[in-house]
What does this fold into?
Amino acid sequence: MSKAILVKGGRVVDPASGHDKVADVLVVAGKFAGIGKFNERDVHKQHAQVTEVETLDAKGLVVAPGLIDLRAHMGEPGHDSEETIAHGAEVAVHGGFTTVACLPDTDPPLDNVAAALFVKRQSEKAGFAEVHPVCALTKNREGKELTEIGQLIEAGAVAFSDEMRPSDEPGGLLRAMRYAAMFDRAVIEYAQDPGLAGGAMNAGYEATLAGLPGISAVGEELAVARACMFAREAGCHYHAPKLTTRNAVRAVKRAQKLKVRVTSEVCAHHLAFTDEVVRRAYDTNFKVFPPFRSADDVAWLKRGLKEGVITCISSGHHPVAPQEKELEFGRAPFGAVGLETALSVVITKLVNTGDLTLIEALEKLTVNPAGVLRLQHKKAAIAAGFDGDLCLFDPKAEWEVTPDALMSRTKNSPFLGATLTGKVRFTVTRGRVIEL
Amino acid sequence: MTTAVAWKRKDLLGLEELSREEILHVLDTANGFKEISTRSIKKAPALRGKVVLNLFFEPSTRTKASFSLAAQRLSADLVDIVKEASSAVKGESLVDTGRNLEAMGVDIVIVRHQQAGAPALLARSLDACVVNAGDGTHEHPTQGLLDIFTMREKFGDLAGKKIALVGDITHSRVARSNIWGLRKLGAEVGLIGPKTLIPGSLKELGVNIHYNLDEVVDHYDVFNILRIQMERQNKGLFPSVREYHYLYGIDSKRLSRMKPDVVIMHPGPINRGIEISQEVADGENSVILRQVANGLAVRMAVLVLVQSAKEAHGG
It folds into this structure.
């Protein structure tokens, strides 16, 4: 007794296998059961247990594996007024994401087994995207005592990070990477030297004229280069999150050449804006961390993506309450929501511009992040036995980003008022179709 | 006056966004107001029945007094609010404060704030006019305008004139407003000071940057000397007041090597004996007190222009 979902006539783009042509996809009991040409009769014949077939007409749509996000702040516990895991999981599905890694900078932080289990339970209860915890590397994210990494993995931790690590004691990170290396999990380290991070926007010409304190690009390069060296020493997988600068991309490239196990990521919004937009109106929706950088930096991010130096694209989803964003630029917190715009931004700013092919772009939203989270054996491939997660989108549909168009509880998007191309129509997850 | 044609802004946030024509229009308007200061009854009725609010989140003596006098000479009612920055962080937000005051019928808000962009935020949120009286290290447009007004009194057209700004450019909103305004009027602008206090990226605006004052001391027609703040020393941006004075202090010895009719300016408050010596500050080439007097006329012009622009656009 189970349900089948038959997705008919879409352009099936599966980066894991390189498949990119029109086909049907069959999901039975929440798992992929085949790719090819099917009708309902075949389904019943081949899968005797199927009692119901839901058919989706995917003509004109791209059928991709459900997107996987490495970087979403879910607010809970501690900031539930901004976002909760259950609601965030639904927001994710609206953006085509079926798996989301949430970050440990909650209050209290995700640094213990109970907290990791809490995330898992809230995610199960909600039943939308799967939310997996990235747990803290050290207790209370203080950069001192290690968390119980072995037990946290058992409880569902997919990676480890102190997310905005307050401590600048380098030996601590090296020790933590050594320990984490035993468990074959990625360490995701805050890519900015804290000593050079005190500012409100990218340091340089625009910040000088805006009269705002700058966040130096050298600080990012320093932190990334240092973590790459530690990863080499520790034999650990280092994932460099949210790169924004030319020289950080080059630092990652150098490390990869030396066969250090380094993956890296860019947040979608960093591909769309430069620091010039900040000065235009001091609009705090443009206040993100790391900050929007120069046009030269953005060109290097695109180049890094094309060359495979940058392996993943994340949403960087970070809800901030409106009363906090309606402050003077220097005082407002960093953060932009991104789960609902990430895919459209990638299509608009990378694929339609010719910087990446669609399959290259989707690789960075599916199979590569799955690898970082060690979920590549059950997710992000349209292959028999894998979780039947799909994202069906119209690659040509245009939509205007308005507060009403966003399901996210807070509307702190830098794209408000912008028109983006590419709109998710259906998301399939946990054996369920969500029509959007 | 043809204010409705040449001036359409309900706010004055900076000189960056002004055109050359708009800058000249303010200065011409100010010229008209300068005469009022010479009358025995120093009043004009332009803002009678209007409410002007001084909203200062940072201490200020001369700018606040200058705006207050400007408003009073234009017959406006004046309200002063001086806020502690710390209470504004914990309590009411800037936008809420502005909306509350606007509900009481304020027509023009003059705001000084530690945070760059705070006047822009207020201008976006209110129907009232907003005049920036200095925001963080962003701009101080009325100071820029009065500096330029004073230079034009001396030279007339500033095209091709050589103007130097000396000191801490990085942390100076006065410098930014001067640079924007002077460049728009075609002046040659030089920035002189230690490398740690001059953002190199400003070259993109077409200004000269000099780290050695003595090499260019006879090149410039005007030296506008900025106040050096002692706390920058603690941040490791220059080693000592003594070394600063040695390298960049304007004293009689350096003055003697400048052009004979060089103009010495300072936006105040002065650290006598540090960035400028006593004799130079009070000497023949100094126009420091004239700057203060001109400030009043410039601010009267700005208040009248923003208010009439708002009324012309049905605000």
Notes: DSSP finds 14 helices and 18 strands in chain A. The longest strand of chain A covers residues 2-14. Chain A touches chain B at residues 204-205, 208-212, 281-282, 323, 326-331 (CB under 8 Å).
